[in-house]
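Chapter review: from sequence to fold.
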Amino acid sequence: MIPKKKVLIMTAVEGERDAVLRGLGSLPSVEVAIGGVGPVDAAIHTTKLLAAGKYELVVSAGIAGGYAGRASIGSIVVASEMVAADLGAESGEGFQSLDKLGFGSSRVEADADWLSRTVEALNAAGLEVIVGPVLTLSTVTGTAKTAEELQQRITGACAEGMEGFGVASAAKAFGIPALELRTISNPVGPRDRAAWRIGDALAALESASKALQEVWK
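The token string follows.
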């Protein structure tokens, strides 16, 4: 008999996984795994784990870029929905999402109950939390023009990562609730590695994970 774990947390790289583990400590009900970078690897690795075990919740967790006016460096974002922002087609009238094309959906909504419980726990710990759409892109935004276009196209966009939609899509296929938790290391826009604060974002991810021990145990 396969033991049931309450939560599966998927991270892209070791640094994110380690930050989550430092925050959580030893929780036998939680499994933290590395799924790789990008939505495809994230979906594949999540699917393999979900096929082999039983879970009540799947979380995509890691660091991300924050959109101007929405999420500053070091802040915590919890996704209201995971959006595949570059899944669709270009046209003379602008970008057409998968939804507009009628070929499916490029959005997975976060589970309302888990979202509420997660935000409440973070707020109770005195942590700054922003709730809104988190975008998944295969190509990270590197210009102010693209950042502005994405914010105009996806109302309320808070942060940008590369795995959330892939993880959430795998969870959806198994009928399991999904969330995305991101901490901000840099502003979305022109790439300026000197301005990145990865250490601050990982510290925030550790703090967020510690605050969620009671929710996820």
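Two observations follow directly from the output. The helical segments are 14-24, 39-52, 98-101, 112-124, 144-153, 164-173, 198-211, 213-216. The two ends are 21 Å apart (CA to CA).
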